[in-house]
# Entry
Amino acid sequence: MTKPFVYVCRQLPDAAHKMLEEHFECEVWGKDEAVPRALLLEKAAKADGILSLLTDKVNEELLAVAKNLKIVANYAVGFDNIDVPACTRHKVMATNTPGVLTDTTADLAWTLLMCAGRRIVESERFTKSGQWKTWGPLLLAGQDIHHATLGLVGLGRIGAAVARRAKGFDMKVVYFDPYRNEQAEQELGVEYMPLDDVLKVADFISVHVPLMDSTRNLIAARELGIMKKTAVLVNTSRGGIVNEPDLYHALKDGAIFAAGLDVFAQEPTPLDNPLLTLDNCTCVPHIASASVQTRTRMGTLAAENVIAALTGKKPPTLLNPEVLG
Ligand code: GLV
Ligand code: GLV
# Structure
């Protein structure tokens, strides 16, 4: 009997490939860039399973040619690259990697919060470029983190993990989420507020909602305008949620103090993105879950999902269980 064919859209940590190769005939896209679309469609036409990255669009066009496809296992918690309702229509299971990257992502959000608030990248550049002439009372002065108010936009797993970190800094934590979660409020000691109120009272704002039609441009000129002039905005979710031209003007004009961004509307962000010119915008290349341990665990979870789906079991983190019903 021929083994099922699994197409893997990038070289992953070894453990994931080992698991897949035990069960399937696997082919891996070996280059350090997204699989060219035409090739992905060609492979999809033969594949029983695809292990996709957030750089691979799984949409009607792909599903229409993927006659044998049973599972698309995304190597990410976010799945805005996958049209899940279309997968369901085509009876294709879709999975993501929730849970295993929660703390690593929260760590990076916290890193950006501290870097932007305390002007760390700017200070480092200052030190190494010979600008340091003397100690100065307001030299590179930032914003206090301890005892400040943290505003979370989204209180899912990652938002909650950020809230837990804030406790160690004696912060007050307020949040907005389209779904109010009173149990989490109790457990974490956080207070629910409408979005505008969170934006008005918070000293630090960290975004943890998925990208959907309802969250695209959730933070734009009006929202930036009601934040404190001293506010620091952190985004580790998806670029489309914060309007980049509006953020640029807010940072440039001093409407807010600083921002820390892990995600961009277009990735890689073009070098002429004006945000890259600002000292008060700390920019990193979508690395929130990038620890060796977590990227390995994401790989093994994605592999577990593929193996379950192609051996007649329920994948552990299935997004569309209707397919099995
Ligand atoms: C990365 O952005 C992810 O969604 O896991
Ligand atoms: C994602 O894991 C989230 O729920 O924040």
Observations:
- The mean pLDDT is 98.
- DSSP finds twelve helices and twelve strands in the chain.
- The pocket of glyoxylic acid (ligand 2) is lined by residues 77, 98, 102, 156-159, 208 (CB under 6 Å).
